[in-house]
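Input protein
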Amino acid sequence: MISKKKQTKTEAIANRLRDEILEGSFQDGRLPSKLDMIGHFGVSHRTIDAVLKRLREEGLIRGVRGTGIFIKEQPKDVSNLTHRLVLMFLPRYSIYEHEPYESLRDEALRCGLLPVNLMMPGSGNPLNLQEQATVTQVLRAPIRGVLYSGRSYWREPFLDNWKNIRSVALAIFDSEKDPPGSSVLLDFRSGGYKTARHFIESGCKRLLILCGYLAPDVPKTKEYWRKHVTTLFMEGVRKATAEAGIQPPDIHFVRKDPEKSIFSEEEFKALADQYDGILSTIDRLAYESVGYAGKLGLRVPEDLMVSGCLDTIWSRGFEHQITTLGQNPSEMSRAAFRLLETGGRRQVLIEPDLIIRKSSQR
C-alpha cells in the first residue's frame, strides 16, 4: 500500500533546480533571474526566496548583488562524490531488529551510489560535538539522501532541521509526528495476522501477545500508540482470532529490573497455565520464554507454541530456533532507493515473511 503526500511548491522547485545544477544544465554557471523564475514556475517572490535560501544553505549557489545568482564552483571530483553519497544512520547492534544493512549497501552500489553508515543518534548515544559538526557539513553538501532507522525517531529528530534533504525511514516509525521525508515500513498488521493464523491452524485457542518494557519517557498519546508496533501487531492478531471464532488475545508487558530477569518462573508458569500460544513482539522475549518453558517441564511447541518478531540473532543464532517475521530486506532496500530518487513524501508498506522454525512446528 502506498500513500502520497504532496510536496510543497518550495520543495518541488528546490528539488528540480538542485537536480539541474548537479546535472550541469546551467552551462553559463548562473541561474535565471528571480523574476524569470517567478514567471516560469508561476509562484510568488516569497516562494522563490525560500527556494534560493535553501540552495544557498546547501552550498550550491551564491548571489552577487546587482549581478545575478551563480552556481558555486566546486572541484569536480568532490562534487561528483557528494551527489552520489547516501548517508545511512543505522544502529550498530539492536536487540529489537536486525537492520537490513547488507541489502541496503548492495542496492546502493548497484545504483552507482556510495553508502556511508553512521551510528544512529539517540538518547543513549548522542552525537558528540565533532560528530555533530561532521554530520552538519555532510548534510549541507548536495548528497543523494539519508536512510535511517525509524524506531523511536521522536527521541532524536535529527532531520527536522534538514527537511529539504531526501530521506527514508526504515522498518518502523512510531513517532507522533510524520516522517520528514518518505518511509518504507513493515506491515505489522499483516505480520500479526500471519503469525496468529499459523498458531490457530496448529491448534492454539488461547493466545497471549508478549511485549517489551516501556521506558518512562515513551509518549502515552493516542497518536503515538496508533503507530506503535504493538498496536499494529495486536490488530492483526485480533483479526485472525475473530475470523476463527476464538477469544481475542490478551497482552502482557514485561518489567525491566537489572537485578532480575524479565519475569520469575512463577510469573511465567501463571502465563503458561492460561495460554497455549505466546506471540512475542521481540525475539529475545520469545527465546527466553522457550527457556522458561523448559525449566517448567513444558514442551515447545507440543505444549506451548512460541514466536518472535523481526528475525534477529535471538531467533536463529542460538540453541532454540524461533519462528519469527522476516523483513524482506531486498524488497525494503529496492523501495528505499526508489523513494530517494523520486523525493517527496510517500509511505510504502512491506509485507513481512513468516519464518516458521522449531518453536512452532507441530
User: Anything to note?
Assistant: The CA atoms of residues 63 and 97 lie 47 Å apart.
